[in-house]
User: Which sequence fits this backbone?
């Protein structure tokens, strides 16, 4: 009996590990609202998932479509819920328990509000209340990002309600890239310009800018001081516990995101930028892969390190 039991144990030990999750979990479906910081964080997560044997995908869409996609479970995870700027848009979904916001932010210390070139601040444009005084120099324009964003909504609300004398100003909606083109052009020409800005983002070291004070009502205190949270479809972490564990483990820093975003701004593929950063900074994997295996149930950390070592 002992020999038979020993033989059975040896057979079990030599048997291949079973898949940790069903085949439906192999494709992890991320949402991205088209911001470079979300491209960076999603790129980092995607590279790690590839190293674990998953096939992550990304859908770029506006905030309303992202939250609706998580509600309908057509999307699995979104790494870019900025609180408080996106809170008005996501609150109805939270109240309806239509999706799940993970309790711990994946990034702390972020900010999101209006900014100007520092030379504009030197001329007296330092607060939200100063904007109206420079209407002529600003050509009556405030540059936002993509239509449907909560940042744009706050600007439009100020204009529509004539808050701080901004009635008659025009909100210029385009995209993150479009806004940055206009801001950069104004910097080169030393023109006055007001635009939505945030950190983390390479703009903070590419341009000498000043965040405007006095926007607590619109964007929150501390220059729109923000925390960024991960949002998942209601059943994602139960249906795909291993991938869900990784997504829940992901924590970023301002410095990390700034450095991954910089090459993305130069048109480098986000996953290539993320892979290069991870190759230089593999120490973050210890925390991210704590309790995480490969898709087929093998040790996760060694698998991802081996994947990153490949050329």
Assistant:
């Amino acid at each position: 009996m002992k020999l038979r039991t020993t033989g059975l144990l040896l057979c079990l030990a030599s048997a291949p590990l079973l898949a940790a999750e069903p085949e439906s979990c192999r494709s992890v479906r991320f949402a991205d609202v088209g911001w470079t910081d979300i491209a960076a964080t999603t790129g980092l997560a995607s590279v790690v998932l590839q190293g674990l044997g998953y096939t992550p995908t990304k859908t770029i869409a506006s905030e309303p479509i992202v939250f609706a996609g998580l509600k309908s479970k057509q999307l699995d995870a979104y790494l870019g819920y900025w609180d408080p700027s996106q809170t008005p848009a996501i609150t109805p979904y939270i109240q309806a328990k239509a999706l799940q916001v993970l309790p711990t932010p994946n990034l702390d210390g972020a900010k999101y509000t209006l900014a100007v070139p520092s030379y504009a601040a030197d001329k007296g444009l330092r607060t939200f209340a100063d904007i109206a005084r420079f209407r002529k120099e600003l050509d009556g324009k405030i540059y936002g990002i993509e239509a449907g964003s909560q940042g744009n909504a706050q600007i439009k609300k100020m204009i529509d309600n004539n808050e701080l004398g901004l009635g008659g100003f025009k909100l210029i909606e385009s995209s993150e890239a479009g806004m940055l083109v206009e801001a950069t052009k104004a910097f080169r020409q030393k023109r006055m310009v007001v635009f939505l800005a945030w950190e983390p983002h390479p703009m903070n070291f590419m341009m000498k800018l000043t965040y405007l004070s006095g926007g607590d009502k619109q964007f929150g205190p501390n220059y729109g001081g923000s925390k960024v949270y991960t949002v998942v479809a209601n059943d994602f972490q139960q249906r795909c516990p291993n991938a869900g564990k990784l997504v829940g483990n992901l924590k970023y820093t301002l410095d990390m995101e700034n450095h991954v975003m910089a090459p993305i701004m130069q048109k480098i593929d986000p996953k290539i930028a993320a892979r290069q950063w991870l190759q230089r900074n593999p120490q973050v994997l210890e925390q991210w892969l704590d309790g995480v295996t490969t898709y087929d149930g093998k040790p996760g950390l060694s698998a991802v390190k081996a994947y990153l070592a490949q050329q």
Notes: The chain has two domains: 24-109+227-309, 110-224.
